[in-house]
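With this grant's support, we have paired protein sequences with backbone structure tokens. One protein thus recorded is set out beneath this paragraph:

_____
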Amino acid sequence: MNGRPLRFTPRRDAGLYAYERALAHGGFSPVAGVDEAGRGACAGPLVVGAVILQGAKRIDGLTDSKLLTPARREELYAEITTCARAWSAVIIPCHDIDRIGLHRCNITGMRRALAALDERPAYVLSDGFPVPGLGVPALSMIKGDQAAACVAAASIVAKVTRDRIMVDLHDRYPAYGFDVHKGYVTRAHGTALAEHGPCPEHRFSYVNVGRALRNNGEVALREETEGQVPGGGRTEGARA
């Protein structure tokens, strides 16, 4: 069920915690935020983060993870995973994206990340688009990671988790520069794809990767993804 059980919408300048405060006053607690990282990449996994902050220590400096420096994201990630009431991260490998599609992976990942929280949320705030089938009221927010603290925290958890994975993948596939562009489409990434063809961590359903595969001829077989849970992907989480 999706809905907005509020008689008013908090103003954007009321602060990142305004939505959670208003929902708490309306009897909805705890509130979870959910967001993803890697949707626009052509290599590497999709990672979905979910965070409950309500009742935990206030974390200053939260915002859209893309607006933060890598060092500041790491600092906030450490604070979120230490202080949050609950958090989780779900990792969906590239071959699942190829098999069932990006949007379905995104929706499924958000459901799984919320289900992996140590507490069941009473209300969910999501970034960008609605997540059906949650069984609790939910609200999708345009630029939610700049409007609600729990969504901003979820974006940071997802982004830092994914960036660390891409740095590790650089050690296995150094020709592509994953440690720099994190699998997104850049000129350097495109040049590497054209020269070497895709590696097992590329998304073969994407047009640019398919073109590089056809032009290059051969590609290594996909390796088994370690640490998967049934249905694909890994789940990480903790509660302070």
Summary: The two ends are 29 Å apart (CA to CA). Residues 168-216 form one domain.
